[in-house]
Design goal:
Two copies of one chain form a homodimer.
Chain A: E1 5-8, E2 15-16, H1 18-27, H2 32-52, H3 59-73, H4 80-89, E3 94-95, H5 99-108, E4 112-117, H6 121-130, E5 139-142, H7 153-156, H8 158-163, E6 170-174, H9 177-186, E7 189-193, E8 209-211, H10 216-224
Parallel strand pairs in A: 1-4, 1-6, 4-5, 6-7, 7-8
Antiparallel strand pairs in A: 2-3
Function (chains A, B): Catalyzes the hydrolytic dehalogenation of small (S)-2-haloalkanoic acids to yield the corresponding (R)-2-hydroxyalkanoic acids.
GO molecular function (chains A, B): (S)-2-haloacid dehalogenase activity
Pfam families (chains A, B): Hydrolase
Amino acid sequence: MTIQAITFDAYGTLFDVYSISELSEKIFPGSGASLAEMWRDKQIEYTHLRSMCSMYKPFWEITQDALIFSCRRLGLRLDLAGQNALMGQYARLHAFPENLSVLQQLRARGLKLAILSNGNLQMLQSAVDASLMQGVFHHLLSVDVVKKFKTSPEAYQLGPDVFGMPAKNILFVSSNCWDACCATWFGYTTFWVNRTAAPLEELGVAPHGEGRTLADVIAFVEKLNPA
Amino acid sequence: MTIQAITFDAYGTLFDVYSISELSEKIFPGSGASLAEMWRDKQIEYTHLRSMCSMYKPFWEITQDALIFSCRRLGLRLDLAGQNALMGQYARLHAFPENLSVLQQLRARGLKLAILSNGNLQMLQSAVDASLMQGVFHHLLSVDVVKKFKTSPEAYQLGPDVFGMPAKNILFVSSNCWDACCATWFGYTTFWVNRTAAPLEELGVAPHGEGRTLADVIAFVEKLNPA
């Protein structure tokens, strides 16, 4: 079997972060979309800067830093109640509707499943619980143990290490094109869940497979692992 | 003397990139500002991803990749003429009006001056020529020799290496807050030319000095190096 295990990115891939925009809009009418977008971009930027500078701190704290900066940048007055509500939303994300059934079908095919995320373990466990996916994953892998965020090789190495197999035998699934591309560079077999029909990043590399929802992963695995 | 040398970031700090927005707007009326902003963000993001993944390629090429992606993302039809015009603008940037006089005053105080930039040497030389700053800098330092972009330590190390002194005796000047902050982590004495009155990045670190134009660097140096 070519593919023996699958690692999934968490935010945006398994867990729907749309409710964060909704809540942003409720708290800051007219600015919800800009805030959610800047918050996400800044969150990822801070993971890059801290990885490159070896100044790691947990994703939960970085997420909060990014929220505080984005509100200041947009001139939005963030009080503690708003901050707690928005941060708390990260612990209450719902899974995309197709997820549970897709994950169960993949497990039934004998595949080992893991989450490989920038999120610290507490965040991941909380999101897994809130989305009723307890018992679905064999491993929850957080970059917290290596203190480097994606797309650092130390972060991607967690998959091969936990499964004890080369990256090419592990399917890496992400809705973030940059994540799927950089995982391809690392050596994974990769699948991009392109939920928003975004263009491919101009990085000179492409994920091995692409689809619109998590359900498309099944056909891709079947193609690679013919019965 | 505390400060014996100064390294300057190039784009936005010495060279005014505003003309790029202007030209973008001329080529894509109504979308110039969004394109210029996304182009810049994507350019920096690609330097991060390629540094973390050890997939270096020169800044000129990354800049072009970021332009191509941004146009595709925004649904703008970029033909070769437009691409060449926009890329060519990078080689024809003007310096901010105060620069030449400020740099000459700093040189007259016996300080060694350098540019330390993500840009490859050809881009830097071209921008120095276009902005009539030939002979002003003792060194043009490009990350191209270490194949890691800022904010990697290998990139920041170019300053101490070329000047043969500890980073704390070198003033690192940038208009990008993230650059000034990460250079502070690295060990430089730092100054943020906050041209747009932006809020401080939420990274738990701050540049040692802040001003609105390059001219404010002089007073800061005088404070650190009293006569």
